[in-house]
Amino acid sequence: MLVAAIILITLALVAYTTGVLAERRSGTLHWWHAGAFAVGFVFDASGTAIMSLIARSGAESATAAGGLLSAIMAATGALTLLLMFVHLVWAVVVLLRRRERELRVFHRLSLGVWALWLVPYITGMASAMAG
Question: Among candidates 125, 93, 121, 120, which has minimal Cα distance to 109?
Answer without folding.
Answer: 93
